[in-house]
């Protein structure tokens, strides 16, 4: 199972990280005003992270390509 590690965007709390299994991610949305990115999970949970939308999409694409290469061998 492939995971991405992201930094949570929780105002007023100390910095923390979360690992999300990519098969639990159903959408990624850029939040207005450079406030970060919102990720929706299969159970309906919304997770706000500090990484920019482009970075997350690049990471997901890289993990998907890497995972696909492993599955084909």
Kindly summarize this structure in a few lines.
This protein has 73 residues and is an alpha+beta fold.
Describe this structure as you would to a colleague.
With about 70 residues, the protein is of the alpha+beta class. Helices cover about 25% and strands about 35% of the residues. The protein has one helix at about 55-70, and strands spanning about 5, 15-20, 25-30, 35-40, 45-50. It has a 3-stranded antiparallel sheet with strand order 3-4-5, with helices on one face. A two-stranded antiparallel sheet has the order 1-2. β3 (about 25-30) and β4 (about 35-40) form a beta hairpin. It is globular and about 40 Å long. The mean pLDDT is about 85.
Strand content: 25-35%
Average per-residue pLDDT, rounded, comes to 86
Largest sheet: 3 strands, antiparallel
Task: State the strand order across the main sheet.
Answer: 3-4-5
Distance between the termini: 16 Å
Q: What is the helix/strand order?
A: EEEEEH
* Structural class computed from helices and strand pairing: alpha+beta
Nearest-angstrom radius of gyration?
13 Å
Let me know the number of strands: 5
Instruction: List segments where confidence is low: pLDDT < 50 over at least 5 consecutive residues.
Output: none
User: What sort of overall outline do the alpha carbons produce when their principal axes are compared?
Assistant: globular
